[in-house]
Amino acid sequence: MRSKKKVSIKDIARLSGVSVATVSRVINHNGRFSEETRERVEAVIREYQYTTDMTGKSLREKKTHTIGVIVPDITNELFAAIVLELEKYFFDQGYSVLICNTNEEDKKEAAYFKILESKAVDGIICISGSEDLPEHIVKSGIPIVCIDRKPKGKSDVVYVESDHYLGGYIATEALIKKGCRKILILSKQKALSVNTQRLSGYLDALRDYGLPVLPEHIVGLLDDDSNFQGAKDRIFYMAKKNLSFDGIFATNDWRAYGALVALQQNHIAVPEQVKIVGFDGSSVSEYCYPAITTIQQNKKELALRAAQALLEQMAGKAAEEHRIVLPVALVERGTT
Amino acid sequence: MRSKKKVSIKDIARLSGVSVATVSRVINHNGRFSEETRERVEAVIREYQYTTDMTGKSLREKKTHTIGVIVPDITNELFAAIVLELEKYFFDQGYSVLICNTNEEDKKEAAYFKILESKAVDGIICISGSEDLPEHIVKSGIPIVCIDRKPKGKSDVVYVESDHYLGGYIATEALIKKGCRKILILSKQKALSVNTQRLSGYLDALRDYGLPVLPEHIVGLLDDDSNFQGAKDRIFYMAKKNLSFDGIFATNDWRAYGALVALQQNHIAVPEQVKIVGFDGSSVSEYCYPAITTIQQNKKELALRAAQALLEQMAGKAAEEHRIVLPVALVERGTT
After folding, report:
1. The domain A66-162+299-327 belongs to what CATH superfamily?
2. Which of A28, A111, A221, B203 holds its CA 20 to 30 A away from the CA of B150?
3. pLDDT 10s digits, B3-27
4. This prediction's pTM
5. What number is the ipTM of this complex?
6. Interface of A with B in 101-140 (CB under 8 A)
7. Which CATH class is domain A164-296?
8. Cβ–Cβ of A119/B119 closer than 8 Å?
9. Where does chain A show beta strands of DSSP type E?
């Protein structure tokens, strides 16, 4: 019994006693070979279980029908849901999706962009990240669309995002309308476009309702802080010292949940003494007690619009709009 | 300004006025070309930003330093956590990880196995799935290790799994020790090895403690039922009709949570009237109210052992054991 190890097209040629070009023609059903040759080559292929190598094929056809998706953290529910929607959509359109998890490490991200390039994907969707998208990546030549991530500098890259400004505004407004006057924003320090936009919404809502902006109310967690634990520690400390706030706009549901737990541990009643609004619509906001009022992002639509934009780009069409912004919605629950 | 589109090795050869073989030798620093040729080829490569195509390279070197991971549902927290651990471990060992989400569709799974083969991955980790792993996939020739999934029939494939039998046993025992006498198992009908093992543990615990097995207490959800909604509907119906049980062993935390909500909606007190134990240690079990007692799987160790087994196989070593079983632990919370 012969070993069934994968063989190269070169091996097939050698074993069939024909040229590589002939094997290639047989595989691609591209005329110019005798019936006898076809039979010989196909017998060898069967014998060695040679599967048409898509990457080899891609060097010829320049299409691999494969899409790469770069995601910073697959365990982030929002990202996982978007990836799932992308996969479903692309698969139905005849594309396979290769997912790469960068763990929010820039070095890893660069490595995965290179890998996807070398695997000859037809296009890349890049979801979020720890930095705005570096220019050298944007210029790699492969069609690319970003979700929730702004490409750095001037660039033609299409990006799809939720209306983070609107989210920040309606979250803050919801707290104000429920009677909060001292509203804290609990975000990350890093000046990512999503953070900056949510902060703008918060600031504009305060201004529109005539409330002052206090530096102590702008709380930015460090990069290394986990959303839940970082928020919990910070709010625990602030609540113990001196409760200087009656509302929290947390720019992520896990931060909102961390804040909720910290308040509960300090016997501060939510929503009676402090109200909380989160962001994303993650399951934790739905299943904790009390359930957290949040800003819901439209994951399905984010995926769909990004996928469509990428397919258009792959078909050589120029993008009509480079920034696609999708509305968000307030979901009222127990913390307001 | 010239376009920076990706060019093939053939284009480089044409533009440099040399053969493809020569370009290949230059790229691989493999002697037999003049200094002048090297300079000319490298200039063209620089000009066109040609990146060495790893897949082309792989056909020569037969190693791509890429691992494929097949996962049925990336939004399943347990699977996502395992994938994350796999990615981290492999990346540190110099391997990139391409993740494929099959959406629990057998057709899609087969397609992704083919894709990974064509992308010339060095090995595949296959997590769970809707069926035990089909034989033709096991025999594809690429090293493969399964997590939480038994290969079909007799096979040499290594698989790593939690001790599902033990999990089923200690979950049931925990309920018995808390006073439950009428314990329901809430599982899936499909005879997957994980389901079968958990059921065995449940049955043996009942037997060891002298409790009868009642057919009405073995509740199997259909494949199409969602874990949460399916469990909720089923338990809602059973609780409304006639509360014939005082304990529920749900073989998944979302099913446990569905049962909890259904009981609460029927004003049945948990844990006073009915106690619940889940399985997996998902965040929902931790953050719902009351938090759910569960069987914790060791996600990190599952990933680590599978990764190590795959690397050994890739290095040509024979597996010492084909089934690696990891212990599970009871985490006691509010529902017992």
Report:
1. Response regulator (3.40.50.2300)
2. B203
3. 344 567 777 788 788 887 787 777 7
4. 0.78
5. 0.75
6. 101, 103, 108, 111-112, 114-115, 117-120, 139-140
7. alpha beta
8. yes
9. 66-71, 96-101, 123-127, 144-147, 158-162, 183-188, 218-221, 247-250, 275-277, 294-296, 323-326, 329-331
